[in-house]
From TrEMBL, chains A, B:
Pfam family, one: Aminotran_1_2
Primary location recorded for the protein, binned into one broad class: cytoplasm
Name used for this protein in its record: aromatic-amino-acid transaminase
Ranges of residues in domain Aminotransferase class I/classII large: 151-522
Annotated signal sequence range: none
Length: 534, 534
């Protein structure tokens, strides 16, 4: 996997990059954050001065759907501007009084960086306490409390967590090439994807999107009912092939395809689900160039971005030294499409699901001001933003308790956890799988290993379809006690016959001993199916 | 306000109704709930045997949108059925391992029923502790823990909270008239409404809905961008007028109206936003009959249902004795449309926002199996259900700590809190408002007082429009230091001139002293505007 990083800042001098120290200075200068119940906030309140020395993003009016263009600002939220008037008494918003919130305090026990394991958390973790009136009383940090978190909030998210997310985004994607980027919290990337699709695609316009030929099944199930057609782009071990994408778009025949030329690419650049493929920096640049050429907007879905692992060196070889500092860790990450996005044609989807907990139902998007504004207008009429309870716990953890450095150390810890798990499944594959039939690319990121089964070697290859062989192997797997997911379930174009035979396995969930047994069973199932029957 | 309740069970003998004791017996019989990470569950697992002795709901295929009909089951969730096989090792779902969840335990401090005030909570509240592995370790109840709540879950909600919600629904809406009703958790009623609109309405079909002539502005803003037209039904002090609704539907002219005859009614029966009107039992029966006559599906949005207050008796009169028992409390509630729903044509939207905390972002719907199934198929591709962190806190509070009886006592406590607040604002109105110009109906539920200003008495009534007078009063109010919301912002048909001049005020948020001052300022603003200028 190519993970070298030459110039993530696109020519920007290194000294201009925002650092953890720089964030501390900015916060000190800004003074204590005052953000009471349902406060308005946006990323511009938290971006560094460096972020503004670039041109603005392009406008996307010509791509927006009828639905998105029709959204107007919430009339009650407009009235909120009067709340700033000193001495004004509001009989306006129907917000319950915090005195009627029956949770008085919350305390969570969390690890102290860098001692992140469960045993270390039990031994040296800390209790983080959150009271109802911490802001008024100046207690427990005095910035965010239950009276705020448990009431209604803004759909963009609380100012407290939005500040952290904005800073984190600037820290990681150093030097975004346009100035008017913003973040907004989401209820997770599945919901954010649905909103994005409704923002850019119209059933009535006969819109279509492009994605990897094998793609996240829930994303496909989100797209289809909206009347949006999905077309798959061929892949190799580094994921989506820009040449094939260019070819598809250059030769687009609306009539033959039954859909308008796609204006949206949905891609998972790192540890793609289901293939585990990670796009190299050059691959990303090439994909971006094709999107520029055909004026395609990019939905960059990156739940596994921070699950980029140590390079795989093979069994019984010395491990590559892990990053020694958070700077080294950040330098080692493949640059995001966001860092290459001179046009502002990327909406990046981040999520806490894979790197903290899925049950928080919190993620965030980063995109141009225009796109984020349209997104928030929609969120005000559907999710209204993520759970305030989740937000305050996440804020207390990643901001007040860990800080940016502690959080990056947590990600470095996870990197090694996932490296170990990946190496375990790869060792099991090398031990148990028939190498003449089953092949794989060691994943550089994520939680999936994509196993390619050479169906041409099957004794009934000429009479049985790939789907039939796949189903037979799947059933034998279940009989033998292992669940691996059928590759055909991920086809972007479900009505087309698959070109190959694949199974998706994950190394995220099962214990390491169980993974070895599971791969052994999978190998036995393949061998049984490929044995010439008498 | 008519809040008498004659026969909420529709003729069902009282002994068949589910009681709190009955729930305890059912739970004892069912044994300890076992619902590990991402368990499937549905209300049928938790309904009482009494719930099944009724006919099934009607089918609604003829009303469903193209989008809703196209939804298919999630392919990865289908694979989950194999997980039941003993000894099977899953390399299937990409669920992170709980060992990588950095929150080890949560503790919340909550009141002990019936001592619910903040002072009582501080003095006699209890600490509720939640560990990561409580289920495996048999600790802290052993039914629901952080390893489950912080991982992915089912979109219908966790079995633990769904059980409570199902039981609560059966307890409150005693004797639903059809058997195949179900509940599903939501991320709040705004999101649930958007999903419902996408389920029943099609832009391409030129669909329309009916609602109160003054309606919740966010609901209107949710509807409009979907290309769904909204038509308002006239109201009186008891809300929507069934006669006007019948008249609108009977005389529907698709061409003149520019939309198909409405197939959906969106209504807030109790403490309607913005008018504060509460439909009596007879009013609800009459509305239901009109919906049957015209085959209209009902979205019953009831965030304020449990904010039904004590009857208003006027200033300096003895208070009506409050309900002595939870049974008396339940008997005093106006029956829901759900209890009248022989066809299964109601989707009821409930929410914890107004009665526990808005920041949980948890509510639930109740409807027929067909409708709930379509709803969940959509939720799997957008919200994926509410935050697991919110779910476990809410479960621990309302189920394990309070139980059904404790929760009903909490609602009884809130009833008196809101009664006191309402009586405060009404006393202020009687003291400070010019009764010859401003009039109101004392609200029987909710958090809003709707003030009608007689614009015909304005000195420039013949030359100024209602909107102009409304704007002038609003601005004077801001000058004098009070924010009251302009009635015209809630018009269902925004392009039509309003028929009257109204302001919405809330008694939920401001302190009781501030409310008196605010109403005094409002009165002064009205007087100033209505004073004949020389």
């Amino acid at each position: 996997m190519l993970v070298e990083k030459k110039d993530p800042g696109l020519g920007q001098p290194a000294q201009e990059r925002l650092t953890i120290e720089g964030i501390k200075e900015l916060r000190a200068k800004a003074g204590k954050l005052y953000a009471p119940t349902a406060s308005y906030s946006d990323s511009d309140m938290f971006k560094s001065p460096q972020a503004y020395g670039k041109p603005k993003a392009k406008r996307w009016d010509h791509l927006l759907s009828q639905e998105s263009k029709a959204r107007e600002a919430c009339v009650l939220k407009l009235a909120a501007k009067h709340l700033k008037k000193p001495g004004l008494i509001s009989l306006g918003g129907g917000l319950p009084s915090a005195e009627n919130f029956p949770i008085d305090s919350l305390t969570m026990h969390v690890p102290t960086p860098p001692r992140f394991t469960e045993a270390e958390t039990a031994a040296s973790g800390q209790d983080v306490r959150i009271g109802k009136y911490d802001v008024a009383r100046g207690e427990n940090g005095g910035v965010y409390d239950l009276s705020i978190a448990m009431n209604y909030g803004q759909s963009v998210g609380s100012a407290q967590l939005l500040r952290w997310v904005t800073e984190h985004t600037e820290l990681v994607h150093r030097g975004l090439p346009y100035s008017d980027w913003r973040c907004a919290l989401t209820i997770g990337s599945t919901g954010a994807l649905e909103q994005a699709l409704r923002m850019f695609c119209d059933r009535a316009r006969n819109d279509a999107i492009l994605t990897e030929e094998y793609s996240f099944s829930t994303a496909l199930e989100t797209t289809a009912p909206l009347g949006i057609k999905v077309f798959g782009v061929k892949m190799d071990g580094q994921g989506l092939l820009p040449g094939d994408m260019d070819e598809i778009l250059s030769s687009w025949d609306e009539k033959a395809r039954g859909a308008r030329k796609p204006t949206v690419l949905y891609t998972v650049p790192s540890g793609q689900n289901p293939t585990g493929a990670t796009q190299s920096e050059q691959r990303r640049r090439d994909i971006y160039a094709v999107c520029q050429k055909h004026d395609v907007f990019i939905l960059e879905d990156e739940p596994y971005y921070f699950l980029q692992m140590q390079p795989y060196t093979g069994p019984n070889t010395p491990a590559v030294p892990s990053p020694a500092t958070v700077e080294e860790f950040l330098d080692g990450l493949v640059p995001s499409l966001l860092t290459m996005d001179v046009d502002g044609r990327v909406m990046r989807l981040d999520s806490f699901s894979k790197v903290v907990v899925p049950g928080s139902r919190i993620g965030w998007i980063t995109a141009s001001e225009q796109i984020v504004e349209r997104y928030i207008r929609h969120a005000e009429c559907c999710s209204q933003g993520p759970s305030g309870i989740s937000q305050i716990l996440m804020y207390k953890l990643v901001d007040e308790t860990w800080g940016h450095e502690g959080y990056l150390k947590w990600l470095m810890h996870l990197r090694l956890e996932y490296t170990r798990r990946r190496d375990t499944i790869l060792a099991a594959c090398e031990k148990h799988l028939p190498r003449d039939i089953v092949s794989w690319v060691p994943p550089a990121a994520g939680m999936f290993l994509w196993l390619k089964v050479d169906h041409t070697k099957h004794p009934q290859a000429s009479s049985k379809s790939i789907l039939e062989i796949e189903e037979a192997i799947f059933n034998t797997c279940i009989d033998k006690g292992v669940l691996a997911i059928r590759g055909s379930w991920f086809r972007a174009e479900r009505d087309h016959a698959p070109s190959g035979l694949f199974f998706r396995t994950t190394f995220a969930a099962a214990s390491e001993a169980a993974m070895d047994a599971a791969i052994e069973r999978f190998g036995a199932a393949v061998r049984e199916n490929f044995a010439a029957t008498a």
